[in-house]
Amino acid sequence: MLGISGRRARGQSLLRLVDDDPEMREILSRVATSGDHYANEMRLAPTEVHPDERVVDCHVSPVRIGDASLLVEINDVTRRSQISRENALLIQHGAGRQMVRQLAHEIKNPLGGIRGAAQLLERQLGEAELREYTDVIISETDRLAGLVDTLLGPGGPPNKQYVNVHELLEYVIRIIDAEDQRQLTIRRDYDPGLPEIRLDRDQMVQAFLNLVRNAATALDGHGSITLRSRAVTNFTIGDVRHRVIATIEIEDDGPGIPNELQDSVFYPMVTSRPDGTGLGLPAAQELISRHNGLIEFESRPGRTVFYVRIPLEQEA
Questions:
Q1: β partners of residue 245
Q2: Would you say the pTM of this structure is higher than 0.85?
Q3: Which of 55, 105, 152, 304 fits as disulfide partner to 299, beta carbons 3.0 to 4.6 Å?
Q4: DSSP string across 48-81
């Protein structure tokens, strides 16, 4: 856990082994001063040995054993914490899907009647000036119908075929490049050993495009996006444990997702941009869920990563 052998660790400062973590320093000082026990979750910052932040259960107790005055027990619960977060995302996705169905029922059904009535009225109007008003009604109902279709996403079951995920990512990069992101740097960190996976090409392209376009928008055309692929073994998605999955990471060095939005970004209509629709992330989550997968993320200023988890063994 600390990246050092027991023999080499003996006699070393615990704080030095956790890169002088300020929270750990404060906890040890508090227990040594007060004599009270401490037990809580805490986060260990990335180190040279462990590039990712870790969540640990930390128990500190006052003791008197020789020269020792504190007993520190640290248990890595990063994966347990991630599973809890994934379950919360699945619940959020289910709630978002229910919202979409209600919206479709409440909005789309009356739109056809409004459009038809406007067309009938248009035939009764002789003056071109008056027909302009019916044109507005028809165009606005079409716009709302398009919005609901976007919420619902592509219909029908996925048309799965064996595809190379890296080829899909390269196709998405070409689309982003064509959108005049001239100051944007896109880096690739692909795992060449990742096998082909049975996926719906169109749905996966749309999901990746939504995520990469979100990252590009967050950077406002200035910054870097890293696309990374890895195979991960023994990974749990929801309540299903998979022998091996593919993880596709979309990382950017932008300002990050505001803290107040991080618990709700996969709900429809949630966005921090004045011109945003808040549909890109829930649509991407829906498309990935059709492949028994999940999108999760971590975000702080200077580093936002969206992880697309997809089982390598897809059901026929």
A1: 232, 311
A2: no
A3: 304
A4: SS--S-EEEEEEEEEEEETTEEEEEEEEE-HHHH
> If DSSP codes are grouped into helix, strand and coil, which group holds residue 307?
strand
Report the top-level CATH class of 161-311.
Answer: alpha beta
Residue 160 tokens, joined = 């799965």
Q: Cα(39)–Cα(170) distance, rounded to whole angstroms?
A: 47
pLDDT of the chain along its 316 residues, tens only? Answer: 777 888 888 888 888 887 777 888 888 898 988 888 988 888 877 767 776 778 888 899 999 888 888 999 988 887 777 777 667 666 666 666 666 666 666 777 788 888 889 889 988 887 888 888 888 888 888 877 776 665 565 555 678 899 999 999 999 998 888 776 567 889 999 999 999 999 988 889 989 999 999 899 888 878 999 999 999 998 888 778 889 999 999 999 999 888 888 777 777 666 656 555 567 788 888 888 888 888 988 888 899 999 999 998 765 4
Gap between the Cα atoms of 108 and 101, Å rounded: 10
Retrieve residue 297's tokens: 């993320």
In the numeric block, which tokens belong to residue 314?
């897809």
